[in-house]
Amino acid sequence: MVRLCLTEEGISKGWQHIQDVEMLALALATVCIAAAGYIINDYYDIKIDTINKPNRVIVGKRISRRVAMFWNVAFNALALGLTWWYMKPVVWAVNFGSIFLLWLYSNQLKRQPLVGNIAIAILTAVSVAVVALQFPQNAYLVFVFAVFAFFITLVREIVKDMEDVRGDVSFGCKTLPIVWGIRRSKQVIYIFLAIFAVILLSTYLTFPTRFAFYLYVVELPLLVYFVYKLHYADTKRTFHFLSQLCKVIMLLGVLSMLLL
Fold first, then answer.
1. What is the pTM of this model?
2. For the domain 2-259, what is the CATH code?
3. Assign residue 235 a region: left if phi > 0, alpha if psi is -120 to 50, beta otherwise?
4. What does each of the 260 residues of the chain score in pLDDT, given as a tens digit?
C-alpha cells in the first residue's frame, strides 16, 4: 500500500509494482523479520504467556523451544539474504538493526517501563519508513504515515501492558502500569494521543482535502471514543477491547492511503 499509494513512481505505474522484484523482496523480508520477532518473543515469554494467554501458548507446547529457535534463525537469515541481494545497503542495515532490536526487546526491554513500548513503536514505524529508503520518491508522505504508525502502536503497547499486568507482576517485570500504576499510565496515553491528534489536525494544511476530511470524520471520532473507554477501563476485558480498537484505527489509517 505504501509503495502503490504514496511513492511517486508507484502512483504513476500502479499495479505494475506487484511484479516489482525489489518490492516483493522488501515485503517478504519485512514479513520474515516480523515472524522471527514473534517467535523469539514467545521463546522468552513461555511462563508469562501461560498466565496472560494460556490458550495461545505455542512454543514449549505445540513445538519445542529448539525448533522455534531454528525458525527464528531461518527467517532472519532469509530476510537478510533478500535484503543483501535486492536492496540498498542502508535497507540491509536497517533490517539488521530491526532484528537485533527485536531480540533485545524480547530479552530485556519489554520488561522495562516505556522503553520496550517505544522500541516496538519504532519498529512498526520503520516497517513503513523503510519503503522510502529503497524508493525515495515522495519520502515525506511515507514518513508522515510512519509517524502515525509510531504513535498508535505506542498507545496500543501500553494498553497491552495494562491488560497483562497479572502475568507480568508474577515474573518481576517492570512495565509502565506496574511501576506507575494504571491511572498514571492512562495519563501517559492521554499525552501521546494529544500529540497524535495534533498531527492529524495538521494534515489539513498539507494534504488533499478529502484525505484530511477522512481523518476528521473517521479517525478522530474513534480516538475520542478510545479516550472515553480508556477513562473507565479497569478490567482485563476492557483493556483487551481497547487493544483491538487500536488495530481498527491502524487498519483505517492504512486504507486512508487510497485517498492520496
1. 0.86
2. 1.10.600
3. beta
4. 888 888 766 556 666 666 678 888 999 999 999 999 988 888 887 666 666 666 777 776 778 878 888 999 999 999 999 999 988 899 999 999 999 999 999 888 887 888 989 999 999 999 999 999 988 877 888 888 899 999 999 999 999 989 888 777 776 778 888 888 899 999 999 999 999 888 877 776 777 678 878 888 888 899 999 999 999 998 889 999 999 999 999 999 888 888 87
